[in-house]
Design a protein that fits this description.
By secondary structure, the protein is α+β, with helices and mostly antiparallel strands. It has helices spanning 2-88, 98-103, 177-180; strands at residues 90-96, 107-110, 119-122, 132-135, 141-146, 148-151, 160-164, 169-174, 186-192. The N and C termini lie far apart (151 Å).
């Protein structure tokens, strides 16, 4: 009887453990099914995000190409503007004695009456090779070191001055760049050495 009672108790205990274990297995199987479902959902989200990233990468590549085109155009325009500014600020000058300027086909005699009162002016078909090409923005002084100097070309009064003393002219100083070069991009100075 005792053995039978113990066996009954043991069977009841084992059945109880089996029921609990079946519950745990069912719960474990349900948990695994939930994890699998979440994995499928996350995998589909990752696929969708990868598609968006690829689409964005294509858009970024297109935008980069547009930026490169715009940058190239901007650089070309900047270079063109720089060249135009350089051309606008390019001026030429020369100085020399009457003899030098006449021999080099820069000036000619003008006006006067029967050899009197003649003055000198720049020739219309002057020798361009005799002139020095410079950037007006960088030219403020021209060293002369002569006895006398006078301008042959027309430049507004008050835009320049000669530096020196009664015995010599050391240099010409351009005080107002834009105004000085407004009448002519050429400067001819007749000097007496």
């Amino acid at each position: 009887n005792n053995l039978l009672n113990e066996n009954k108790k043991m069977i009841a205990s084992l059945q109880s453990k089996l029921k609990k274990s079946n519950k745990r297995i069912a719960e474990l199987e349900q948990m695994i099914a939930n994890f699998q479902q979440q994995l499928i959902e996350k995998d589909s989200e990752i696929t969708a995000l990868n598609s968006k990233v690829e689409s964005m990468q294509i858009n970024i590549d297109e935008l980069n190409q547009k930026v490169n085109v715009i940058t190239d155009e901007s650089n070309k325009k900047s270079e063109t503007i720089k060249q135009q500014k350089d051309e606008m600020n390019t001026v030429w000058y020369c100085f020399g004695s009457k003899k030098e300027l006449l021999e080099n086909n820069v000036i000619e005699k003008a006006g006067g009456f029967v050899g009197l009162g003649k003055s000198y002016k720049m020739k219309s078909d002057f020798n361009r090779d005799y002139f020095k090409k410079v950037d007006a923005r960088k030219l403020s002084d021209i060293t002369l070191k002569v006895k006398k100097a006078e301008l042959i070309t027309t430049h507004p009064d008050g835009t320049f001055h000669f530096a020196g003393n009664e015995k010599s002219v050391e240099s010409i100083t351009i005080d107002k760049q834009d105004e000085f070069w407004s009448a002519s991009k050429y400067l001819v100075i007749l000097v007496e050495p």
